[in-house]
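Appendix B. Raw example, untouched.
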Amino acid sequence: MKSNLETFVVKKEEINSRIDSYLAKKVEDLSRVAIQRLIDEEKILVNAKKTKASYKIQENDTIIVEQEEPKEIELKAQDIPVEIIYEDKDIIVVNKPKGIVVHPANGNPDGTLVNAIMAICKDSLSGIGGEIRPGIVHRIDKDTSGILIIAKNDKAHIHLSEQIKNHEVKKTYIAMVRGMVKENEATINMPIGRSTKDRKKMAVTKKGKEAITHFKVLKRYPRHNCTLLEVRIETGRTHQIRVHLSQIGYPIIGDTTYSNGKNEWGIERTNLTC
């Protein structure tokens, strides 16, 4: 794969800035998140040596940045019906239906939202991450329906990713859960990581990453022993809402993974919409 090399020499008036901040200003198409990834991969060197994102640059430091050119990936555009909520030259907002995976993966090589977006956007695709593909900046589970914002170019991808990282994007979900939730509203602050009992699942664990979920009751259904919640998340951990609600005793209806297999309503989807 071809790589692009850029070299920067630090001037006196630029010293003592963090290297990730310095490069974010120098290289228009690189966010601080992408810069930190390149540093971890040792593709950013200072005076021919590996560095850290927190390094304070000094006068005459020679910084070399290696970026791989975006590569074509074997993905085909597919005419899959997807409701478009909004579209302009920078972003497209779609309503992902239940049952569709966002990204191709083992077991789902095609028929994904990415395949659908490739057909819709055609040549307008983001190259972030070294691949020519739609700029997916956030995702939702296969059996969850909801709105996704997708970047159509690198600049939009960078800005959207930064906004999500800085919690400037508000993510709100509607979930139907089993049980009568007592609190009218509450916050769940429990770290989430990979389950030690089942590597395919996530779990609340002391060694996990910070995960914060807020919820409030929209309506209770005593006759059916279920509650409709509005859920807002500050973090975006894998399966966060499903794990958190199950942990406090109110699993999402239809979620067989985190509800001990119970599904007395016979629902074949996770009853969660964003």
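End of appendix B.
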